[in-house]
Design a protein that fits this description.
Number of helices: 10
Largest sheet: 8 strands, mixed, barrel
Order of helices and strands: HEEEHEHEHHEHEHHEHEEH
Distance between the termini: 32 Å
Shape: globular
Strand content: 15-25%
Number of domains: 1
Length: about 240
């Protein structure tokens, strides 16, 4: 797998699929998250959970590919956000903001329609370096999201110490029927800091209604739509609805 992945991008086997993020108040599509897919010649289409942990040698090329493709695709959409997952090392690399600016400029995507997602624990590995990069990105207009918040050991001081635009609640919290009061309190605190909340992993109507009641700004999950190729995104945008 590792050897094959190193050649997958050059061989044209990598693709980018998209999952919509739904506005809780209108139930309309507000944006999409970009997700890597590998069209493996023997195993078929496989998701990142099956290959990212084996891709240390080629993660830089893969991250650059996904980012460039997502920006190019999103530049053709109407006024919608695109979220792209970022590797931890990128957020501690001082040249990263310049790389983002170059990729966005080449694609024609306005920087204020790009949202970079970083895992909570990754942001904590080197918070000073991450903060410096985040500040520069925010000054450029790029939005920053903390992904999978609450997965493992949460550190709410992130909200106070990092220039974050959005918090994405982990699926494990969203599907917990006892977490409603905590989510509502957390959403209130985030809104007071001018941050938005996305509930990830929404799988049932009951969970969607609970996240709406808790005040989450956006929802994402199989209840609304599974990730789909870019060509299906155009149809979803034209249709405009939450269901695809």
């Amino acid at each position: 797998m590792t050897n094959a992945l190193a050649n997958a991008i050059a061989a044209g086997e990598m693709d980018v699929w998209y999952q919509p993020q739904i506005a809780s108040t209108t139930l309309r599509i507000a944006g999409f998250e970009a997700l890597a897919r590998w069209n493996h010649p023997e195993r078929g289409c496989i998701g990142p959970d099956e290959f990212l942990d084996q891709s240390e040698e080629s993660i830089e090329d893969l991250a650059a590919f996904v980012l460039a493709r997502a920006c190019s695709d999103a530049a053709l959409w109407p006024d919608l956000m695109v979220g792209v997952n970022v590797a931890p090392y990128q957020f501690t690399h001082g040249a990263f903001p310049d790389e983002i600016a170059a990729i966005a400029s080449a694609s024609g995507l306005p920087l204020d329609r790009l949202e970079l997602e970083i895992l909570e624990n990754a942001a904590l590995e080197n918070p000073d370096a991450a903060r410096a990069v985040m500040v520069r990105l925010r000054e450029m207009g790029v939005r920053i999201a903390i992904d999978d918040f609450g997965q493992g050991h949460s550190h709410e001081f992130l909200l106070l110490d990092l220039p974050v635009s959005k918090i994405k609640l982990a699926r494990s919290i969203v599907i917990d029927p006892t977490a409603g009061d905590w989510i509502a309190e957390f959403v209130g605190m985030a809104h007071a800091l001018d941050m938005e909340i996305t509930a990830e992993g929404v799988e049932t109507q009951a969970q969607a209604k609970a996240m709406q009641a808790a005040g989450c700004d956006y929802m994402q999950g199989f209840f609304f739509a599974r990730p789909a190729p870019g060509r299906d995104v155009v149809r979803a945008i034209v249709g405009g609805g939450a269901k695809t």
